[in-house]
């Protein structure tokens, strides 16, 4: 399946991490996503850095069939916020380094928490 975005839709599942700061209205986006009919699962609203993410974030999980719909929704609703997108393959290092995409400005991840699988 092709994608509306430069990120190829080649995985079975995806995570989109919406990055925000204290002075943004990310909670409005979170609540709007929660109330939407999008085929997504919302993660916790983290007001701290979690895992490899260098900013506060919340996660949106979705599958390949919802890819175009979710990506279009994110682009329409994210405002100035950055969204980090990656496939979910079971290899966290690869998932956060290969075939990743960004809506907005990219930021450096803290990849030293992962050990590449051999």
Written overview of the protein:
This protein has 118 residues and is an alpha+beta fold. 21% of the residues lie in helices and 27% in strands. The chain contains 3 helices and 5 strands; from the N terminus they run E-H-E-E-H-E-H-E. The chain is globular, with a radius of gyration of 14 Å. The N and C termini lie far apart (30 Å). The model has no long low-confidence stretch (mean pLDDT 92).
Quick summary:
The protein is α+β, with helices and mostly antiparallel strands and 118 residues long. The protein has 3 helices and 5 strands, in the order E-H-E-E-H-E-H-E.
Approximate strand percentage: 25-35%
Element pattern in H and E: EHEEHEHE
Helix tally equals 3
**Rg, please?**
14 Å
Strand order of the largest sheet: 2-3-1-4-5
Instruction: Give start-end ranges of low-pLDDT stretches.
Output: none
Topology:
Blueprint: E1 13-20, H1 26-35, E2 41-46, E3 56-63, H2 67-77, E4 82-87, H3 92-95, E5 100-103
Antiparallel strand pairs: 1-3, 1-4, 2-3, 4-5
Task: Describe the structure using short key phrases.
single chain; alpha+beta; five-stranded antiparallel β-sheet; 3 helices
């Amino acid at each position: 399946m092709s994608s509306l975005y430069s990120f190829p839709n080649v995985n079975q599942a995806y995570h989109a991490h919406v990055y925000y700061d204290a002075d943004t209205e990310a909670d409005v986006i979170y609540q709007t996503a929660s109330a939407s009919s999008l085929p997504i699962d919302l993660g916790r609203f983290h007001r701290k850095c979690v895992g490899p993410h260098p900013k506060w974030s919340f996660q949106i999980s979705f599958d390949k069939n919802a890819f175009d719909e979710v990506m279009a929704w994110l682009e329409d609703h994210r405002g100035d916020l950055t969204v980090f997108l990656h496939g979910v393959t079971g290899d966290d290092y690869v998932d956060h380094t290969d075939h990743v995409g960004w809506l907005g400005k990219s930021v450096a991840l803290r990849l030293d928490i992962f050990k590449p699988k051999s």
